[in-house]
Specification:
mainly alpha; about 0% strand
């Protein structure tokens, strides 16, 4: 049972939650970037998201249901990929550097799930291979957040996009995922290290291209804002900065994971866990916390609520993650009690976020 938990827990979190959330939000949000009617292909998108989520859930069962689950998940992700490519089309406009990143993210979803399914059905634990972990994290989730971060650069006042740097992101992300894919196929540690090096380059490029740490909290620009806009901006920009800091930490931990793997296995394990949680919880979950209460209510209801926005979910999430990452970086062995407490804090943050969004006015 423990072995099954080790295999299925990260799969359900990464594909069942992160991929499904990204794909479903992208299916609603991306058409707005292109003035493409969101009323088109509604049933197709709904069915595809259901296939993706349902397929991942089915993949935890025994053969042949796990095979069918991976097949359905790949099919759902593939249909959403075709839809996104159709909507985005050729890059155009001032924010065009985001377009290939969004398309790359969607392409990588079915590819990663298919590769994971192939490894698992062949009798391997896919996440025991660094390449599949890198492909799954550096690829679809990071590429989508990079793209959305560029598309929404104007959410943060007095912030300009450095287009020259942002155009370099797609090549570095391609090098990242190609290296990770080569690592999956060959098991060569060199490719794993190269993937981490290229992702660190992507991280630096994105941070500077969107000026991720630029945040205006006072002055004429803030004073002129309406109460609603000020509350939303201060919330979004704060959590965005926190997520960006975690991204840098994740990229560095990812590289240190590869550099210490051969020379100090225990240190490698501690860096690896710190890398995983810095990227998934620190970067991706904080970005979800930043964008969800700002974008989703207007997408679903047409309203722009702001009363009830709270920093409490973000505070809990980050306290839990700092505790986990700090514990591992201290060199201490994994602690069941600490892991359980941190997991409870994570879950509490999720429920508080849902409650906050439900009560926004």
């Amino acid at each position: 049972m423990f072995t099954a938990l080790v295999i299925h827990h990260p799969k359900l979190v990464l594909y069942g939650f992160v991929y499904t959330f990204i794909a479903s939000v992208a299916a609603i949000l991306v058409p707005r970037f292109r003035d493409f009617s969101p009323q088109k292909y509604v049933k197709t998108r709904q069915v595809s998201v259901s296939l993706l989520a349902g397929g991942v859930l089915m993949s935890v069962l025994g053969y042949p249901f796990n095979f069918l689950g991976f097949l359905l998940a790949c099919l759902g992700a593939l249909v959403l990929t075709f839809y996104t490519v159709k909507v985005v089309g050729r890059p155009r406009g001032y924010l065009a550097p985001a377009d290939p990143l969004i398309i790359l993210s969607m392409i990588l979803m079915p590819v990663t799930i298919a590769v994971h399914g192939w490894l698992e059905l062949s009798g391997f634990n896919p996440f025991s291979r660094e390449g599949i972990l890198q492909l799954g994290l550096y690829g679809a989730p990071a590429s989508m957040v990079f793209g959305i971060g560029i598309k929404t650069v104007r959410f943060r006042i007095d912030t300009l996009l450095r287009r020259g740097l942002s155009w370099m992101l797609t090549p570095t992300q391609l090098l990242t995922v190609f290296s990770a894919s080569a690592a999956v196929v060959t098991g060569n540690h060199l490719y794993e290290t190269l993937s981490s090096v290229f992702f660190l380059a992507s991280t630096v490029l994105w941070i500077f291209s969107v000026d991720a740490f630029h945040r205006v909290t006072s002055g004429v620009l803030v004073e002129r804002m309406a109460e609603r806009d000020k509350v939303r901006y201060l919330y979004f920009s704060m959590v965005f900065v926190i997520a960006s800091a975690w991204l840098i930490a994740a990229a560095l931990f990812g590289l240190l994971t590869q550099l210490t793997r051969e020379i100090h296995p225990m240190t490698w394990y501690l860096f690896r866990d710190s890398f995983i949680h810095s990227l998934t919880v620190g970067f991706i979950a904080n970005m979800i916390l930043a964008y969800s209460p700002i974008i989703l209510p207007s997408l679903f209801t047409g309203r722009i609520p702001y009363k009830g926005l709270s920093y409490v979910p973000a505070i809990l999430l980050n306290i839990g993650n700092v505790a986990r990452v700090g514990w591992f970086l201290s060199g201490a062995f994994p602690n069941v009690l600490l892991t359980a407490v941190v997991a409870i804090v994570y879950i509490a943050s999720i429920f508080l976020t849902l409650a906050m969004m439900h009560n926004l006015r």
